[in-house]
Amino acid sequence: MDRRPxxxxxxxxxxxxxxxxxxxxxxxxxxxxxxxxLWTEAHPGATVLVGFDxxxxxxxxxxxxxxxLASFGLHAIVSDRPCPTPCVSWCCSKRNDAIxxxxxxxxxxxxxxxxxxxxxxxGGPVSRExxxxxxxxxxxxxxxxxxxxxxxxxxxxxxxxxxTLVDGPSIAAAGLNVVVDPMYGAGASVLAFALERLGCxxxxxxxxxxxxxxxxxxxxxDPWADECEETVSSTGANIGFLLDxxxxxxxVVDENGNILLPHELSPLVLGHLIENRGESGRVVVTLTCSxxxxxxxxRLGCGLTSVxxxxxxxxxxxxxxxxxxGAEEYGGLAFPSHLCERDGLLVCLLVVELVAKSGRSLRQLxxxxxxxxxxxxxxxxxxxxxxxxxxxxxxxxPGLNPGSVAGRRPVEVSHADGLRxxxxxxxxxLMRPSRSDPVVRVYxxxxxxxxxxxxxxxxxxxxxxxx
Length: 467
Hints:
- The structure is a single chain.
- The chain folds into three domains: about 15-155, Alpha-D-Glucose-1,6-Bisphosphate, Chain A, domain 3; about 165-375, Alpha-D-Glucose-1,6-Bisphosphate, Chain A, domain 3; about 375-465, Alpha-D-phosphohexomutase, C-terminal domain (TATA-Binding Protein).
- It has 15 helices and 19 strands.
- It has helices spanning about 25-40, 60-70, 85-95, 130-135, 155-160, 170-175, 190-195, 225-235, 260-275, 290-300, 310-320, 345-360, 360-375, 385-395, 450-465, and strands at about 15-20, 45-50, 75-80, 100-105, 115-120, 150, 175-180, 200-205, 240-245, 250-255, 280-285, 305, 325, 335, 375-385, 410-415, 420, 430-435, 440-445.
- It starts with 13 loop residues before the first strand and ends with a helix.
- The relative contact order is 0.10.
């Protein structure tokens, strides 16, 4: 039997792999060894916070990593219970002696996966250069040395601060009925407790310990949101909330049991920040985000910065300052005045505050927003190719400049992240090869589903022809 150690490669945030295909304690100790070496060289004796979600063996992995980090003389502190990623990141950002975070989670992936996320001293992403350096220092054999570490309650201080960020008296006066679905993830009992402290009547589902998530994928979208949607409808709740596996992204369900699309949620939250809370600043979005948030930013007088896909690019803009909101395509929202990282729990509290103070239902608020910024239809389709064909399309992409798509002439062409074509009515289409998989992602948005789909079909055909 081949027992050679697996080669560990990092994605955008860290390392993810199937539990039956390489993600094990030996690998965790090897990665912690490389992190300990680099962090000690830069900041000997610094503090590292270690968190974990509710997945299989996450607590064991966290404690094993903490022991390895402590063997380098680092002060390792492990959460005393499963906790959301933004919670650990926030705690790290508040400590002058902390150098970073190691969080054990595979976020929205199914229970078959394990994961390890690395965060910096401010709780935000570390650089690609740092992750590459960690990769280069991963040894072939796990270290044997292990030091002592402490445990601490990260959730308490984080929640104490979080509930001060919204208008508690207005929320309590509204007496809202809320359904919370942590999807068996790290947010179990955390968001529900915060909402109860604020005076909401809370029904929580999928909060029991269940390492296989009872067949659920902890991703806040359909079809995994079905039971939350049904519970909102059957109980007559005002709002439903879902959190992904590590709590950095949220899904929101209206009073009719319909989940809001990320392209509805992002501009809705932006409107609340500017119009109701009096905040100001730029909005940073990825190029794959809906035109609706750009329209909302323009309506509100906010500057807009568009960046290629990847939260690290949003993070770099937030570090420059004057940013009120960072938004990703999939609904991850970051509020730099709070934390330079996505925080699904704060999103939920802001939505509760909006509904409580407006006196209107969530669906009414979304409809009102649509009347102001227009209604658009958004979708994405993945064109799967073999690796050679994907690379072939990637090679021809920089020179691709079509004069028309689906009989329409683009008014703007951008190669900043794939090929993005903009049309005169606000419609657009984007063809973007994945950086990690043999697939080209094609995005399209238009005022009607018919026009959107025509652009999508023509662009997918262009991808296949170019490959």
